[in-house]
């Protein structure tokens, strides 16, 4: 389809056109590198020029590699009011909708693919395991090239997992557990290596903290991550401030990415300005580098062709759109991605959680009493103003934070559905629903705290020491 000049380009979105131009450019480079026949190269070049012309006609701007078009799609109900738009980037998530971000429109905007029933069923067939409830409930809802990862797995070809954490505070909250809970499940069902990046350098660059404090937070966050139950023989956790200075492979990949991304491109992708420090401008290459297996020669024996799968929240996608654009130009496979929805603040899906606001979420350091108080006092309710009205009209599950949290953490599908139906019908009151959430979260947090107590500095050192893992490459 990409090679047919007669295909209907008018039906494509600006982002789809951008990706088609990028793919065709890669094909032209591959044909030239492979010394293909001249007529074949000429045809591919003509198609590339046609696509670039269509892109300029549609967007009013010239195609620039690695610089996706400016947003031409509004996310929230087609409104043109600026204050009603959903804002999603690696540092900000804002929506005026009490239901939260419109993820179907976000898929269109970002140009990713929806995780549908067919893909979930294929994952189940490939692994022989029941899909994680994050998949069954659409918490992980979008992907890039997961079908390619499954192709490789079914053909006995290796891949590895990469996820990360920006250590902005000593105490993590329950929302921070989401990618790690899911990554742990992926690692277990596929039996693959995992690398976890702690971007303490990023937090030093963006936050008002010392470099020593950022590094300390990385070590403390590593303990919470390890407490999720990862296998030390299959998992490497690293701090950028530590690892970058010890791995030639990691630094070489950073420099390769830096050479192939211009300042203009990172300004367009990330919104950097001329007043941002040069550390911020160069940082995206550091988050890109773990996507390439050659960044970890001690694990992959120097092999460069092992594909990476990245589970992350969709606000991190701009980093990896950039990475996927650069990868073919530096001889690396594109990383695949699995995107999760955002975890809501207690005050509602339209508000932002903040480490500086202890009431915006349930923290992993909270006591049972604190958890109960926070949920009862701060969890936004979809219930009615009076018991009589609630009995008559029922509650709104779409905006109720207790329902949202239970969707993340209550594993029993039947129980969750019963609660939703009872709340919608008015049979279950808001106070009763919050009691269920309290009884779900208290043991979950207490169990995590017990596991974390067992994580010694020596165990952290084992996880964070560059070494060979329990795999042969």
TrEMBL record:
Residues 13-69 form the WHEP-TRS domain. Pfam families: tRNA-synt_1b, WHEP-TRS. GO terms for cellular component: cytoplasm. It is an enzyme of class 6 (ligase). It comes from the Eukaryota. Belongs to the class-I aminoacyl-tRNA synthetase family. This is Tryptophan--tRNA ligase, cytoplasmic. It comes from Sinosuthora webbiana. The gene is Wars.
């Amino acid at each position: 389809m990409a090679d047919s000049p007669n295909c209907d380009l008018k039906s494509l979105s600006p982002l789809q056109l951008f990706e088609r131009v990028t793919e065709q450019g890669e094909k032209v480079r591959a044909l030239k590198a492979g010394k293909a026949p001249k007529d074949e190269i000429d045809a591919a070049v003509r198609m590339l020029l046609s696509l670039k012309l269509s892109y300029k006609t549609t967007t009013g701007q010239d195609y620039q590699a690695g610089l996706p078009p400016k947003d031409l799609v509004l996310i929230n109900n087609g409104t043109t009011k600026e204050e009603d738009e959903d804002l999603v980037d690696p540092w900000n998530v804002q929506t005026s909708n009490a239901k939260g971000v419109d993820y179907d429109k976000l898929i269109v905007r970002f140009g990713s693919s929806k995780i549908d029933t067919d893909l979930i069923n294929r994952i189940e067939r490939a692994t022989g395991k029941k899909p994680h409830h994050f998949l069954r409930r659409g918490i992980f809802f979008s992907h890039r090239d997961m079908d390619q990862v499954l192709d490789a797995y079914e053909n006995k070809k290796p891949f590895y997992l990469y996820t990360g954490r920006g250590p902005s505070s000593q105490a993590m909250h329950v929302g921070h557990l989401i990618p790690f809970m899911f990554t742990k499940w992926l690692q277990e069902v596929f039996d693959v290596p995992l690398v976890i990046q702690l971007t303490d350098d990023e937090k030093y660059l963006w936050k008002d903290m010392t470099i020593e404090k950022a590094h300390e937070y990385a070590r403390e966050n590593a303990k919470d991550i390890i407490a999720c139950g990862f296998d030390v023989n299959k998992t490497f956790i690293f701090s950028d401030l530590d690892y970058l200075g010890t791995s030639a492979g990691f630094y070489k990949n950073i420099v390769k990415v830096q050479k192939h991304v211009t300042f203009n491109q990172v300004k367009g992708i990330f919104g950097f300005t001329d007043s941002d420090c040069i550390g911020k401008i160069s940082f995206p290459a550091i988050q890109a580098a773990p996507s390439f297996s050659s960044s970890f020669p001690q694990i992959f024996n120097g092999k460069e062709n092992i594909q990476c799968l990245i589970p992350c929240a969709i606000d991190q996608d701009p980093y990896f759109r950039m990475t996927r654009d650069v990868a073919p130009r530096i001889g690396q496979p594109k990383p695949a991605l699995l995107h999760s929805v955002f975890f809501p603040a207690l005050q509602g899906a339209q508000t932002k959680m903040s480490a500086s606001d202890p009431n915006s979420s349930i923290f992993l350091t909270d006591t049972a009493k604190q958890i109960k108080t926070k949920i009862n006092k701060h969890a936004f309710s979809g219930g009615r103003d009076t018991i009589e009205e609630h009995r008559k009209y029922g509650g709104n599950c779409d905006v109720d934070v207790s329902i949202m949290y239970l969707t993340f953490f209550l594993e029993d599908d039947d129980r969750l559905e019963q609660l939703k139906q009872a709340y919608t019908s008015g049979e279950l009151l808001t106070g009763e629903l919050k009691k269920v959430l309290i009884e779900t979260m208290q043991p979950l947090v207490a169990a995590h705290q017990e596991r974390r107590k067992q994580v010694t500095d020596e165990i952290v050192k084992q996880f964070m020491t560059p070494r060979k893992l329990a795999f042969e490459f």
